[in-house]
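Appendix B. Raw example, untouched.
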Amino acid sequence: MKRTVLKLFCAFLFIFTVHGSPFELLENYIENFQYNLDHLKTYLSSKPLAYSASRQLPEDHPKETEEYDFIIIGGGTSGSVLANRLSEIPEWKILLLEAGEAETDAAKVPTMHNCLKSPGSPLTWGYYSVPQNYSCLNEVEKRCFIPTAKALGGTTAINDMLYTRGNPRDYDLWADTGLKGWCSISLSPYFKNIEDAHFESKIDHSEHRYGGPIHLESPRDYSDMAKKFLESASSIGLSEIDLNGKNSLGIGIPQLMTKKGERFSAASAYLKPAEHRKNLIIKPKTHVTKIEISDHTKEARSVQFIHDGHLFSATASKEIILASGTINTAKLLLLSGIGPEEDLKHLKIQPVKDLKVGQNLIHHTVFPLTYLYNYPPSHEAEPPFYYSKEIDYLRNGKGPLTSNGVDLVGFIKTEYSKGRMLYPDVELLLTSSQHEELNSEQAKKKKINIYLILLHPKSRGTLNLQENSIDHPLIDLKDFSDPHDEDINTLVSAIRTVQKLMQHLHQRGMNLKQENVYNCTAYTEDSDDYWKCAIKHFSTSFGEITGSAPMGMDKDGHIGDSVVDLKLRVHGIEKLRIADDSVIPVSISGQLTAVKMVIGEKCADLIKEEWYK
């Protein structure tokens, strides 16, 4: 194990060292660049890093540190935003605690994203679900791997860089539950203001802005396959759209969080510009173990954390803000005594506040369809790492290494999206093999993968602590457990839409064949039951989970199953807020990156309104 970890370290170190180096020995340089990328992919595709099943906290008493005005727990997507915005006030002292490290230069190469979020990656937590009854049945022990970032910048350091805001109807549904200030009209300025949009594709310019912190651009490596798809999609009513424009249904060219062909994470956008500020202290490789809450005043005052093997305590004079993501935020709340009272007592944790933490998980389940085809890809003449293309990436930020593999993104509405004319319930991600594999032999296999993402599941999962509460939590996604089978029927309906699209492509000269890898021989091939079997066995997760600490409060002040109010304050606890995807009460029609940054921006404004007089 030490040897393999050393090799991994060397691979990362080499990429970090040579990035931007002069081309004195060009051929040798490129061969080494290729070797290290190949080695990194091979390693990260192997077994996960081993860790102790029963980890223990240090036994020494916590060492006191300085007092801060605000302590932010989690330096991910939302936490990066908060750290920047709060440290704009020079008299405020901010402490940012993050379990992971800074992203490496390897993470900036878009093609590497599948490696970076794999089970063995040091940039993920290595979370798995408990064994499932209706999903991931083909996985080992029927457990879904849940990619969850462990790095400054969070998900934006490892994901596929896709940028979607969600549908305006999503946020209007939030407002319908009594969350004033969270409707689409209220949030639209936030979405626009964070953008620095540089698109070459078709967009609605009135919906975008230039000059914000988040650099967005069109793909720099665009496939011929995407052009064919756009032409055929229009024939079945899927017009080309701006994915973040006014039209909600259709298909469009991806909008990416990249800059000159490199990943542009939330850390690059928010932490890098603020790192020189003397009032912002950033502590990576720091594990927060508990939020200390007064029994008498119910006020959050301090946090305990492990750094360099020692236990420390830090105090916040104003507020503590949790921004650790859906899984880790819920886990820390439970460890701190905030959650279902009976569950906490069973684990011998003193209950502080009885709230439904971890009882409302919303998972965007994913199902892949694969087709074989004979249409020649634009890069077929040479393998992906042919020298000219490596030079193109290193010198110009262009070529296949700049691709995240996604050619097109679509939003469709099935018959199960009832009563909502333009409200999508399934997202489509189209990838073709010309981008997908680093290995040249694998790249010769001409494939189209279409990932179907269930946007608004009716099923709800749970998150609970283990008996040894410091261990990874018990995550039960409970995919396809809804009583009327709407979730699985929605995906079957989406499969039929994709089949219509593929039929049109076939008629335009592409010899497409659907790959049968589902082993559901007990059912008639292509029947609805066949596809239900396939979905249950081969569904997977992209780590898009929300709702473990949902925001909510009706007009009469009833909190129901919610954990935070409309100002992101934890019910019944003073000076404690949550600002991440765990607070999302109604699922989003798309990826979560944009809304997480908007939650961070809005939380910063709410805090400034209260404390900056």
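End of appendix B.
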